[in-house]
Amino acid sequence: MMIRDYTYRVDGLLLGIETSCDDTGAAVLDETGAILGESLHSQKEVHLRTGGIIPNVAQHLHRENIERVVHEALERSGVEPSQLSAVATTVKPGLALSLGVGLGFSQWFVRQHKKPFIPIHHMEAHALTVRMFHPVAFPFLVLLISGGHSLLAVARGVDDFLLLGHSLDEAPGETLDKVARRLSLIKHPQCSTLSGGQAIELLAKDGDRMKVSFTTPMGQIYDCCFSFAGLRNEVTRTIMKKEAEEGIEQGTLLSCVNDIAAATQHTVAAHLAKRTHRAILFCQANGLLPLSSPTLVLSGGVASNTYIQKALTIITETTGLRLLCPPAKFCTDNGVMIAWNGIERLREGIGILPPNVGVFYEPKAPLGLDMTAAVKAAAIRLPSVRIKIPS
After folding, report:
1. C-alpha 24 chain-centroid distance
2. pTM of the prediction?
3. Residue ranges of the alpha helices (H) in the chain?
4. Read out DSSP for 272-287?
């Protein structure tokens, strides 16, 4: 929302703060999007040891690090708080305990320094990050895939989205992490410091996906929503069968671990590609994308997976779209994308609040206008496209 009669600068310097999950990030950008200073504290190593993100542990680590991270970003930028035009902070969606830390600190900061506050929708920030690096005009199609989210939407403006599809259960990053955990990849000498998704991608390069077969989810459901829980269960059953065949207990690395990683990654990629293909056809049938240079933006933590990028490139080349993705560093959660979303909102005069206005975090927050029923009603059947990616 926008407060009338509240004056603020539409140019200048903006501080972005991100604490929606397990990364404490802050960055200072100028009005052109140039990164003047940034800092990021990752909790990955802690959560790898505990086997997943524990919300109260994440909260504690955010509290321990947020003041230092914000101070570092400001110090590296050479910017004093008094010079800032506004502060932008993720307030939805995400882990409640994590969001609360970032919001609480930000509200104290803007009141202390009398600065405007811009609440940020985490998924909107991911969707718009690409505009820092490429001149992408609205509208464009965006596929956001991460450890906590999976959705397809048409971005029509800074805060104007049409939601075409979303995950019905878990996100692709969560599935890859859980499969990696069940395979005990943290014990693999090449994977001990990698996230689950990174470990799967690494081992898949030396695997043969044809040696293990998994079913691409939702093959007979003609919409753009996603489901990954059934695939994860199928992978788990296969792992149990292979453990029995090799005579090993859970927690011991299988000899066929690379093949399972390759097959899992391929099935996730194929599912994402097929749902995205249908979204493109729906957009083309309904005039939702421009005829000139229509674009698919891929963003979110899982977007850095090069195999998934290649699968989506096959779809965009088939349908006449260009595929754009932010640099891998900016696919994962960071303060830069939050500051950039703040810059975009500042330019448009959208959602800029005085420092004393109460703001609440929202762990669950839909993105835009829900069009999923219309997509399902269209029941678009896909032409056959072979997702064949050379190893």
Report:
1. 15
2. 0.93
3. 44-50, 55-77, 96-113, 122-128, 172-182, 196-204, 229-246, 257-285, 306-319, 335-348, 372-378
4. HHHHHHHHHHHHHHTT
**Exposed, middle or buried by CB within 10 Å (0-12, 13-18, 19+), for 183?**
buried
Of 169, 197, 168, 167, residue with least CA distance to 181:
197
pLDDT exceeds 70 at position 190: yes
Q: β-pairing, 295-299 with 322-324?
A: parallel
Tell me the three-class secondary structure of 31-98, residue by residue: CCCCEEEEEEEECHHHHHHHCCCCHHHHHHHHHHHHHHHHHHHHHHHCCCHHHEEEEEEEEECCCHHH
Tens digit of pLDDT for each residue in 308-330? 999 999 999 999 999 999 999 99
Ramachandran assignment for 193, one of left (phi > 0), alpha (psi -120 to 50 degrees), beta (any other): alpha
Which DSSP category does 224 fall into?
S
What region, left, alpha or beta, does residue 252 occupy, with left being phi > 0 and alpha being psi -120 to 50 degrees?
A: beta
**328 contacts: CB under 8 Å, gap ≥ 6:** 304
For β-strands 295-299 and 140-145, DSSP reports them as: parallel
∠ Cα 299 91 363 (to 5°)? 85
Query: Rounded distance, CA 153 to CA 89, Å?
Result: 22
Sort residue 195 into left (φ over 0), alpha (ψ -120 to 50) or beta: beta
Alpha-carbon distance 245 to 248, whole Å?
A: 8
Distance separating alpha carbons of residues 316 and 299, to the nearest angstrom: 15
The burial of 135, by beta-carbon neighbours within 10 Å (0-12 exposed, 13-18 middle, 19 or more buried), is given as exposed
